[in-house]
Amino acid sequence: MNPDEPALTEVPVTAVLFALADPVRLQIVGELSGGGEHPCGHLGPDMPKATRSHHLKVLREAGLTSTRREGTTKFVRLRAQEVGERFPGLLDAVLPVPAEPAR
Amino acid sequence: MNPDEPALTEVPVTAVLFALADPVRLQIVGELSGGGEHPCGHLGPDMPKATRSHHLKVLREAGLTSTRREGTTKFVRLRAQEVGERFPGLLDAVLPVPAEPAR
DNA sequence: GAGCATGTTCGAGAAAAGTCGAACTATGGC
DNA sequence: GCCATAGTTCGACTTTTCTCGAACATGCTC
Question: At the topology level of CATH, where does A8-94 sit?
Fold first, then answer.
C-alpha cells in the first residue's frame, strides 16, 4: 500500500486529530466534505503552492485524503467512508455544518 | 466567567482538536472519560508536575475539563456534557472505547 | 509560626510545525 | 526537442510546543 496514503487503522488517532487541528487544513477538509474530487490547486485559502502542498501532505499522511493524478493536475478527495468507519461521527462533529450543499 | 475555563462556544474547534492531538492529553481525557472527578496529580503517565500542569492547562483552556480545589489537591473532571452538546460524537469517536460494550 | 503537601508560574533549552522562495519533477501541447 | 503548467521537495527562517528544574503560591497540621 502506498505509504503516502496509509490505512486509517495504521494512523494514530493523535495524528488524525493533529491534521485537523489547523485552521487551513480544517477548511480544506470542509471544502472536501461536500464530496467528490477537487483540483488540488484551489483548495483552502490563497497561499503559496509550497504551503498548500505541505498541508495536503499532512492530510494525506493522516489518512484523511486520497489523491489521483490526471494529466498535470491532481484531484483530492476526502476518504469519508474510511474515516467514518474508523472514527464514526468525527467529521460530523468537527465540520461546521457541511449542509451547505452546492454553491 | 472564569477565563481559564471558557464556554465551549468561545473556543475555536481547532483549539479543541489541538488539545486532543497529544498522546499525553488524550490519555488524560481517556482516564477522565469514565466520569467523576480525578485528583489532578495522578492523571496520565508519570511525569514532572510542571509538565502535567501544563497539559492540564491546555485541556482546561480548550474547555474540555473543569477543576475544583479541595484542600491542597485539585480535582479534575471532563466537561462531557458541554463537549457533547457542542461537538456531538467527538469524544466517542476519539476515545478508545472506554466502555467496551460487547465482543 | 514552622514544616509539609499539592499545584502553578517562570525561564530556558530542545524539538517540532508553519511559511515560503527557489529548484526540481512530471505531464501535455506545440 | 522546447516550453508552459501543476505539484513536490529542499533549505532556511520564524513561531510555537514540549519539557522540566527552580521558585513561588496555597492550604493543611502541628
Answer: Arc Repressor Mutant, subunit A (1.10.10)
